[in-house]
Specification:
Elements lengths: L1 E5 L5 H4 E5 L9 E10 L2 H8 L15 E6 L4 E4 L11 E5 L4 E2 L6 H5 L3 H13 L7 E5 L4 H12 L3 E6 L2 H10 L3 E4 L5 H8 L5 E6 L4 H6 L3 E9 L12 H7 L2 E4 L3 H6 L1 H16 L7 E6 L3 H10 L5 E5 L6
Parallel strand pairs: 8-9, 8-11, 9-10, 11-12, 12-13, 14-15
Antiparallel strand pairs: 1-2, 3-4, 3-6, 3-15, 4-5, 5-7
Helix pairs in contact: 2-12, 4-5, 4-11
Length: about 325
Amino acid sequence: MQAWRVHRNGEPSEVMRLEETDRPTPGDGQVLIEVLAANINFPDALLCRGQYQVRPPLPFTPGVEICGRTADGRRVLATPALPDGGFAEYVVADEAALLSAPDTLDDAEAAALHIGYQTGWFGLHRRARLRAGETLLVHAAAGGVGSAAVQLGKAAGATVIGVVGGPGKAKTATGLGCDLVVDRHSEDVVAAVKEATGGRGADVVYDPVGGDAYAKSVKCIAFEGRVIVVGFASGVIPTPALNHALVKNYSITGLHWGLYNTKDPAAVRACHDELTRLAAQGVIKPLISERVGLAGAAAAVQRVADGTSTGRIVVLPSGAAR
């Protein structure tokens, strides 16, 4: 089969190589899956760079989530077992962790419903306890992770303020349903949030960016606000001033969704049932900006790494026409 392999760490476009390799062999409790669609996530870029919290042995295949078909014909969502990730024609995954692909979504949309939306749901509902009528501030609102949080925030009845970088991404965020979009390149994020909330600030901040985004967030956080730390796409990990959190009475909450797979798998399945219901109702729908064939995967991962993409880019191993 064909698979993208990384033999040394570096930028995705430089270190990913499309090769012929053997199909992976399922171990105990695992199943072989034909890849129908593999969603690109920012962690795929970090894996290539050797900067992710998990560092698979070299060589490895990136790709952390897929929609695929099992030998008995089931259409499923899976997180492939590294080092044999999803940018390939076949993967293996743990049978117990497979989720049914929603019938209302095509292969690319289904592949993108998994990690990003699960992260958004757990972050907003389990960690932040977002309530209807509250104000939610989402950084990188036009990106893959941010777009999911915007849709889930609107589904929860929140007023959603999206922060983006550039007019093109502002248009995308508006189309996703943001009540207010702030272009960080041309607008003062702190001032815009305070003006929109009558000086109160955002009740919940969803931050997959870190760095300057975090610094601005805590300047416009509401009384008893909650900052959900999801990732550090900026490459800068903030150092929170805990004295500031104390005097302003807000909380900083971390979210590593992958832990739920081992600590509380029942919660993951319950979340998937809720996401499937919302997708069936048309309340949420993954934003797929590009569908590329297997040959285009390395360039696509680089676009995600560079922050130039919107929504999700999905790799279709049998061709971009699906």
